[in-house]
Amino acid sequence: MRYMKEIVEDKNLEFATKWERKSNLAYTQEDIDVVRAEWENHVMQF
């Protein structure tokens, strides 16, 4: 979900280029938890 969020929010369409240089980049558990909390808040609004 975090990966998809970064793709959608990339206004310059440079996401692929950024990730080519960071092939070993991984999300931390904190990064994942932030997206989970955002998703939860969005779903709870319905």
From TrEMBL:
Q: What is the lineage of its organism?
A: Eukaryota, Viridiplantae, Streptophyta, Embryophyta, Tracheophyta
Annotated protein name in UniProt: Uncharacterized protein
What superkingdom does the record give? Eukaryota
